[in-house]
Write a structure and sequence with these properties.
By secondary structure, this protein is α/β, with parallel strands linked by helices. It is built from 16 helices and ten strands. The strands form two sheets. The protein has a six-stranded mixed beta sheet with strand order 1-2-10-7-8-9, with helices on both faces. Strands 5-4-3-6 form a four-stranded parallel beta sheet. Helix 4 runs parallel beside helix 5. The structure holds ligand F0G.
Length: 369
């Protein structure tokens, strides 16, 4: 199905915004949900914590149509799948890729099948895959095993794999870097983001380098990536057979873009670090209660790193020594908090019960001060 939003009106998506920088032609059907153009939100409190003249911005990718950054890559991957005549798109996922693939496949009128590690997907993401009409296949295994199977399926006729091993995904995702440069007028000094399958790190770096070559920026950022400590193959330089973290989106032990992301860290003068689950949940709560931004646990990872600059919890190695004075810093918030409400409700927070009268509520508010 070929639809032109330019002709029909409505907000343009990333293909229309950055068409000349993407591998599409007039013959490529446009499969778009008006993704991208997400807000870059200044964070006064994080800037104050990092201090020394820094300005911290949060790129809120949870505000994409399916609630994560995956939509940027998926619009390109599914448009190209439609162009090639594919009749089934397939992916392995920790949740967000499957939600996005299912939505864009629905939009394109192509069938979608998603391979998920059984019992390990946040409920919001699972609900998305179902409601968008995907065939949801749960495997008794982890994400890495799902991805291995998807690779095996990739040579079957009519099947298009839309994991980030599909080069069109990374091409679409690089547009987030373009948007940041377009908004700030230059690249940031530092870019922080969570690392799972390592595609997004690779894509941002590609976008920054591309705009730098076009003289749209005076500098390139240092890329700082963060893995959860229990799922940290790149940091420890070994495959994790049984990755474990409560941040289910980044529970990955053998990332597909391992080498590409490592090249990005090296070329940019950046680094990869690890964050504990306790820090992740503390950062998630902090971001919601101090800045009004509700993100899923994996998305809080880069904020957790910056919170280490707080003198109360100062961390000897990272990232404070790597932050220059007057730094412009961007953290990507990769996914919306509503995708994984269990991460908040199950273990941590309970409502305060009250008798249904005004006096009871006032006294309760007094005690809660
Ligand atoms: N944050 C969120 C919310 C994610 O869903 C993912 C990856 C990442 C960060 C890590 O990004 O893989 O490019 O390094 N989610 C994939 C999925 C694996 O299946 O949804 P990455």
């Amino acid at each position: 199905m070929n639809e032109s939003r330019e002709a029909n009106g409505g907000t343009i998506g990333v293909i229309e915004r950055y068409r000349e920088r993407l591998p599409v032609t007039e013959a490529t059907p446009l499969v778009s949900l008006s993704e991208g153009s997400t807000p870059l939100i200044y964070s006064p409190r994080l800037s104050a914590i990092v201090a020394r003249g820094s300005r911290v911005y949060l790129k809120h990718e949870g505000l994409n149509p399916t609630g994560s950054f995956k939509d940027r890559g998926m619009t390109v991957a599914v448009s190209k799948a439609a162009e090639s005549g594919a009749n089934l798109v397939v992916c392995a996922s920790t949740g967000n890729t499957s939600a996005s693939a299912a939505a864009y496949a629905a939009r394109a009128g192509i069938r979608c099948a998603v391979l998920l590690p059984s019992g390990k997907i946040a409920m919001g993401k699972l609900a998305q895959a179902f409601i968008y009409g995907a065939v949801v296949i749960a495997l008794d295994g982890n994400f890495d095993q799902c991805l291995k199977l998807v690779r095996e399926l990739s040579n079957e006729p009519g099947i298009s794999v839309v994991n980030s091993i599909n080069p069109y995904r990374l091409e679409g995702q690089k547009t987030a870097a373009f948007e940041i440069i377009d908004a700030l007028g230059d690249a940031p000094h530092l870019h922080l983001l969570p690392v799972g399958n390592a595609g997004n790190t690779t894509a941002y770096w590609r976008g920054y380098v591309e705009y730098h070559r076009l003289n749209q920026t005076t500098r390139l950022p240092r890329m700082l990536g963060f893995e959860a400590v229990g799922a940290a193959p790149i940091y420890f330089d070994r495959i994790f057979e049984n990755p474990e973290t409560a941040a289910s989106a980044i529970r990955i032990g053998n990332p597909a873009s391992w080498n590409l992301a490592n090249a990005a860290f090296k070329a940019s003068g950046g680094a990869i670090e690890v964050i504990t689950d306790e820090e992740i949940f503390a950062a998630q709560s902090w971001l919601a209660s101090k800045e009004g931004l509700f993100v899923e646990p994996a998305s809080a990872v880069s904020v957790a790193a910056l919170l280490r600059c707080d003198s109360q919890t100062a961390h000897p190695s990272f990232p404070a020594p790597q932050i220059p004075d007057d730094a412009v810093i961007v953290c990507t918030l990769t996914g919306h908090g509503l995708k994984d409400t269990a991460a908040v409700l199950n273990d941590r927070l309970k409502p305060t019960f009250s008798a249904p009268d005004k006096a009871a509520i006032l006294s309760l508010l007094e005690r809660a001060k």
